[in-house]
Write a structure and sequence with these properties.
The chain is mainly beta. The chain has strands at 6-11, 16-20, 33-37, 41-52, 61-67. Strands 2-1-5-4-3 form a 5-stranded mixed β-sheet, with no helix packed on it.
Length: 75
C-alpha cells in the first residue's frame, strides 16, 4: 500500500486548488501570504490548516485552507 502523505491546497468551501506529493515542511500562520501558480499567478492567504492521518484514498495529509481575502494573523 502506498503510504504517501500529500499537502493539499484548498479554499474554504473545499475546492481543491493544488497539491504537492510531499508534506510541506514550512511554518504556517493565519494570514500568511501564499502564492499559487496555476493559469497564472494567484495570491491567497492562509485561513486554517489541519492534518488528516489515514489512507491516501481518504485524503490523508496536510490540508491548507486558503482564502482570497486577507485574514489577520493572531496578535
Amino acid at each position: 500500500m502506498d503510504e504517501t502523505r500529500v499537502t493539499y491546497l484548498e479554499t474554504e468551501d473545499g475546492t481543491k486548488i493544488g497539491d504537492d506529493v510531499i508534506l510541506l515542511p514550512i511554518p504556517l500562520y493565519k494570514g500568511m501570504k501564499f502564492t499559487v501558480h496555476r493559469d497564472g499567478v494567484e495570491t491567497f492567504y492562509v485561513l486554517d490548516w489541519y492534518y488528516h492521518h489515514g489512507h491516501p484514498d481518504e485524503g490523508a495529509g496536510l490540508h491548507i485552507v486558503l482564502s482570497k481575502k486577507r485574514v489577520s494573523s493572531p496578535s
